[in-house]
Specification:
This protein is α/β, with parallel strands linked by helices and 335 residues long. The protein has nine helices and 15 strands. Strand 9 (173-178), helix 4 and strand 10 (195-198) form a beta-alpha-beta unit. It is globular, with a radius of gyration of 20 Å.
């Protein structure tokens, strides 16, 4: 008999999530059936999208999210004991998986590919969903060309830090926008960004004009809000905007979204192409993205950082800290 612990959504989030919105409960798991296997969580992901997507589901669900779990029992020859699986099964310690069911929130579980000597946790970051988000979101939507200027907001997060590095690999001038001097220093000194702007202490409009005198060709938008309006107002004709998220508004009430400047005039005048995306669009190319990022990591062209919180009991703390921008790079929880 296996007892799983899981976080249940007790209340839909209103404003900043509160600890009382989630409750840890025990669940007794049944015996395995033919074709099923049992995983034990090793690493769990906390990501900005969870704040918004959780609102789409009824109260009482297991809090959504991906994890890397080790197979500890199996009645499926394709999923042997000892392998690690990336699974979209939520905030829980143990899970029985039937790979034939379509109930895994849009993406079936898959065996974590061989990462050589790299930590398995990267399967939730640079070599997982965030890495593919950065790769496909930049390359497919912005279609960057060497010599162009790229701006990345939320640049010190898991996706933004990755996007900027791909930009440098592809020969772009890269400018990151982040929320602390320490993060800006990391972007420039370790990741190779050409410039980094601290939006909390610097005038973004003035600084962007200074560091991008030839204006901006590509903008990878993780935050939305006024920062995005500033960047789009400094873009070149036929600039491309890849919209990955709008974390600046995630804690706002749906019926009271923050007001921001009108952008339609500049979009029309500069003939900007703006496209939002969800990375599942490229799920049929999942391994292409992982393999490309893996090779860049092995070649020393792509660096990563993880902010690790230890203990399943601290999932909520890690989640809220990530929403507040306390992480640098990928935020994960080690069970």
């Amino acid at each position: 008999m296996v007892i799983a612990k899981k976080y249940v959504l007790t209340n839909h989030f209103k404003g900043e999530p509160k600890a009382s919105d989630l409750t840890i409960v025990d669940e007794e798991l049944p015996a395995l059936k033919d074709g099923e296997y049992l995983i034990q969580a090793e690493y769990l992901s906390v990501d900005p999208y969870m704040r918004v997507y959780a609102q789409r589901y009824p109260v009482g669900i297991t809090m959504i999210g991906r994890q890397i779990g080790k197979i500890i029992a199996s009645k499926n020859k394709n999923y042997p004991v000892g392998k690690r699986v990336v699974a979209n099964v939520g905030w829980r310690t143990h899970t029985i998986i039937d790979p034939n069911l379509k109930e895994h929130l849009g993406q079936p579980p898959y065996i974590l590919p061989d990462l050589d000597t790299l930590p398995a946790s990267l399967g939730l970051g640079v070599l997982g969903r965030p890495g593919n988000t950065a790769y496909f979101g930049l390359v497919e939507i912005c279609q960057p060309k060497a010599g162009e200027t790229l701006v990345v907001s939320g640049a010190a997060g898991a996706v933004g830090s990755h996007v900027g590095q791909i930009g440098k690999i592809l020969g772009l001038k890269v400018i990151g926008i982040a929320g602390s001097d320490a993060k800006c220093k990391w972007l420039k000194e370790e990741l190779g960004f050409d410039h980094a702007i601290n939006y909390k202490t610097q005038d973004v409009t003035a600084t962007l004009k200074e560091v991008a005198p030839n204006k901006v060709d590509c903008y990878f938008d993780n935050v939305g809000g006024e920062i995005s309006n500033i960047v789009m107002n400094q873009m070149n004709t036929f600039g491309r905007v890849s919209i990955c998220g709008s974390i600046s508004s995630y804690n706002a009430q749906v019926d009271a979204l923050p007001k921001c400047s009108i952008v339609q005039r500049i979009v029309v005048g500069l003939q900007l192409r703006i496209e939002g995306f969800i990375v599942s669009r490229w799920d049929h190319r999942l391994m292409e993205g992982i393999e490309k990022n893996h090779q860049w990591v092995k070649d020393g062209k792509l660096k990563y950082r993880e902010t690790v919180t230890k203990g399943f009991i601290n999932m909520f703390e890690a989640f809220v800290g990530m929403l507040q921008g306390k992480n640098t790079g990928k935020a994960i929880v080690e069970v």
